[in-house]
Design goal:
The chain contains three helices and five strands. It is of the alpha/beta class. α1 runs parallel beside α2. The strands form two sheets. Strands 2-4-5 form a three-stranded parallel β-sheet. The protein has a two-stranded parallel sheet with strand order 1-3. The protein has a single domain, classed as STAS domain (Transcription Regulator spoIIAA). The two termini are about 15 Å apart. The radius of gyration is 13 Å and the shape is globular.
Length: about 100
C-alpha cells in the first residue's frame, strides 16, 4: 500500500504529465485501490490532471478508493468533482506507471 503525499506527489505529477503529454488520452481512470492515504498535495495533483483532461474535453475518474481516501474525498467535496467507481471498470487498457 502507498501514500500520495508531499514526498510522493511530485513523482505522480511527473507520471501523469508524461502520460497526458505522450498519449493524450481522452479518458483516464486512476486505480486508487493501493492508496492508503492521500493528502492535499496529492489531491491537488489529481485535480490538476483532471483540469488538464477537461480542457481537452476529456475525463479523469477514480476507481476503488480505500475508506480513508474515500473519506478525504467526501470531506473535501471532491467526491462531487470526480466520478468514483467502486472497482476498476473492466475492459480498460492499463498504463503501467514508470515511477
Amino acid at each position: 500500500m502507498g501514500e500520495i503525499d508531499l514526498y510522493t506527489a511530485p513523482r505522480l505529477q511527473s507520471e501523469l504529465t508524461r502520460i497526458l503529454d505522450e498519449s493524450a488520452p481522452a479518458f483516464m481512470v486512476i486505480d486508487m485501490s493501493g492508496v492508503e492515504f492521500c493528502d492535499s498535495t496529492g489531491m491537488n495533483v489529481l485535480l490538476s490532471a483532471h483540469k488538464r483532461l477537461r480542457e481537452r474535453d476529456g475525463v479523469l475518474e477514480m476507481a476503488a478508493p480505500r475508506p480513508a481516501v474515500r473519506k478525504i474525498l467526501q470531506v473535501t467535496g471532491l467526491d462531487s468533482v470526480f466520478t468514483i467507481h467502486e472497482a476498476v471498470p473492466e475492459g480498460l487498457p492499463a498504463a503501467e506507471p514508470q515511477v
